[in-house]
Amino acid sequence: MYVQINTDNQIKSDAEANERLEQRIRSRLRRFERRLTHVELHVSDINGTKGGDDKRVSLEVRPTGHDPIAVHADAHRVEDAVSVAAEKAARALDHALGRIADVRGR
Fold first, then answer.
1. Residue 8 C-beta-side C-alpha neighbours within 13 Å
2. pTM metric for this prediction
3. Residue burial 23-35, b: 16+ Cβ < 10 Å; e: rest
4. Helix (H, G, I), strand (E, B) or coil at 80
5. Where are the alpha helices (H) located in 1-106, listed in sequence order?
6. For residues 69 and 100, is the Cβ–Cβ distance under 8 A?
7. 2-104: CATH number
8. N or C: which end of the chain has fewer CB within 10 A?
9. How many whole angstroms separate alpha carbon 23 and alpha carbon 29?
10. d(CA 54, CA 97)
11. Which pLDDT tens digit goes with each residue over 37-46?
């Protein structure tokens, strides 16, 4: 599973911060790792210096042989938004891949 992290110019990003975010995503999506080809994370600051729950995370997961699944989350901290988005992605994957398994009779 390849993880790509993109940030806007309002978010401070370095290799260490990206590694922590990637580990957070991998730990939440571990059980789907063999079924995912690509995970793309977009982090933005929607309010700039105004504050509030202004960190927006968009997470797109691409299961092998299926349509991509995209989720979004907002929080005060990037790490919190990533955790919420990863949990949403896991639930969406459970639903989408579980439904496919039900149709196939597995």
1. 13
2. 0.85
3. ebbeebbeebeeb
4. helix
5. 15-28, 78-104
6. no
7. 3.30.160.100
8. C
9. 10
10. 31
11. 999 999 999 8
